[in-house]
Amino acid sequence: MSSHSRLSRAFEQAKTITFTKDDKFILFSDCHRGDNSFADDFARNRNIYFHALAHYYDNGFQYIELGDGDELWENRSFKTLFKAHRNVYKLMRQFHNEKRLHLIYGNHDMVYRNPNYVKKHLSTYFDERFGEEKVLFSNLVFNEALILKMKQSGKTLFLTHGHQADFMNYVFWKFNRFMVRALWKPLQIMGISDLQVLPRILKNSLK
Q: How many alpha carbons lie under 13 Å from residue 109 in its C-beta half-sphere?
């Protein structure tokens, strides 16, 4: 299947959200929420992200996340991410409860295309204070694509993550995930954030 075919299929199966001129949307992409380790690129910006999202919530915006919201190549479970960024997910739950949350999955959170995975891992969380499971995201759905359609004009806007255009990130994403977990995350934890400097580091270590 070609990239054109994959994107065409995503468009044909996209969920349509009808809106009016009075509706407001905020779009985020590639947040890559992680485990708050040195490998978590989201961690250094999480406070400004949270306060920005709180502003949009208070002002009646609908929140659209365009894929790779969660970093599930470097991390094996949502539980780790929730523990690291609990306040963010609870704010997202408020959007969800008011039907103002719309999520698209990307290549780094491709597992969310499976409704059973989402139900198992994101529906509830364990509250240590009360020693019991509590509802997090009830009936949460991730989409491959969305179409925003303005009621007055009928004009549309197609939204997707875009990994459909890349063969390795769509078809062989599991291989890429393995490489990130086995090689890239350990390097990040060691403090290497740019692969271009790796040859120089190795050369110096062999002197």
A: 30
Does the residue 185 lie in any domain?
no
Handedness of CA 113, 114, 116, 118 (dihedral sign): negative
Confidence (pTM): 0.85
The CA distance from 202 to 197, in Å, is 9
Range of the domain at 105: 3-176
CA distance 189 to 146: 35
Domain count, the chain: 1
Inside any domain, residue 13: yes
Inside any domain, residue 70: yes
**pLDDT digit string (tens) for 124-183?**
999 888 889 999 999 999 999 999 999 999 999 999 999 998 888 888 788 888 888 788
How far is residue 53's CA from residue 85's CA, in Å, rounded to a whole number?
13
- Residue 63 domain-assigned (yes or no): yes
